[in-house]
Amino acid sequence: MTDSALFCLCRAGFEPELAAELSERAARAGHPGYARTQRNSGYVEFVLEDAAAASRALPWSALIFARQKLVRLADLRGLDPSDRIAPMLAALDAVGGAGLNVSSFGELWVEHPDSDEGKPLAGLARSFGNALRPALRKAGWLSKHDDPSRPRLHVVFLAGDHAVLAMSEPLDSAPWPLGIPRLKMHPDAPSRSALKLEEALLTLLDPEERERRVRDNMQAADLGAAPGGWTWVLMRNGMKVTSVDNGPLRQALLDSGRVDHLRADGFTWQPKRTLDWMVCDMVESPARVAERMATWFRENWCRQAIFNLKLPMKKRWEETRICLEAFEHQAHRPLIVRARQLYHDREEITVFATPR
Ligand SMILES: C[S@@+](CC[C@H](N)C(=O)[O-])C[C@H]1O[C@@H](n2cnc3c(N)ncnc32)[C@H](O)[C@@H]1O
To answer: Are residues 158 and 261 in the same domain?
Structure first.
């Protein structure tokens, strides 16, 4: 019998951060448990009494280090490569018998962790998905057509003979396989960092907010802007940008007529009037950046912000928590704060904030 557990995917190397985050948040929500992790595996299992209830108490969108959040149904080891399907159907029947509250799933995703060990399983995941789908439909476990209103079934391969069977609620989980939004680097983008801000706008705002909050002719500041990836994203969204950095910006941005380049210190520069947006990607200690970001909200210099906190130190979960708490406290006003380690983030997290 498989323990009741949440099964979460993360950036390889960030398992301790996700384990600490889950432990702390689950305990606070009244669902104490313990994490099982392996460094660089790209996933964390969090064992607790009632994973389904804990999952409802820990929304995916509020988790910083989880790319994906699943409720584990079965842990299948020693799978025979000549027939991996029969044990999966048997496992589903067994959990179904134990009161699984699902008559059939709306979709099947076959995945693997985004780790050195997991990536070579991509081919198996693809071909196995094609084989399992019709078998699930025949057994009545999968709807005939994709149905996002029903829970999703996940098979996560950890090795050729080891798979985790799990489920997610489409409205409370990442809408991308592996929890990875696939964004293409635009040939005109001045830097790969552009993808970070694009992903932040995609994942930290919902579609209605994007429409309302990201508009033509808005005024924005970009602190630590060079060579200009974030400025370019703001400009492409129709904004006028003041780009603050002592380093050079791409000429095309300056030629656009929508960008002012200020060679100034992003920690002391302030706008003359309230801006629609401030974004910040300065490489500095997260505590110092968080404090400066709080000043912007305290002084009402911007209506909303997206900023990056670099986390090069050891206790990255603790540092994250301390910096976000200090940010909210020092802003002296109630804020909506959403933070996430994006796929395009490395040793860092990205934060969206706006007054409530
Ligand atoms: C990671 S890069 C920013 C990349 C940029 N977001 C992009 O998309 O191209 C960090 C930048 O922060 C700038 N920076 C660091 N400290 C700064 C400060 N005190 N004031 C202004 N810029 C600063 C650096 O010059 C560097 O260009």
So the answer is: no
Please identify every residue annotated as catalytic.
Answer: 310
Q: What is the reported pLDDT for 100?
A: 73
Residue 184 forms part of a structural domain: no
Q: Are residues 146 and 243 in the same domain?
A: no
213-226 per-position pLDDT tens digit:
999 999 999 999 99
- Ligand 1 site, CB within 6 A: 190-191, 193-194, 224-230, 244-247, 265-267, 281-284
Nearest CA to ligand 1 atom 7: 229
Q: Does residue 62 surpass a pLDDT of 80?
A: yes
Task: Sort strands 219-223 and 275-280 into parallel, antiparallel or unpaired.
Answer: parallel
CA distance 337 to 324: 8
Distance (Å) from CA 14 to ligand 1 centroid = 24
Could you tell me if 351 and 292 are in contact, meaning their C-beta atoms sit under 8 angstroms apart?
A: no
Residue 60 lies in a domain: yes
Residue 254 Cα to ligand 1 midpoint, Å, equals: 17
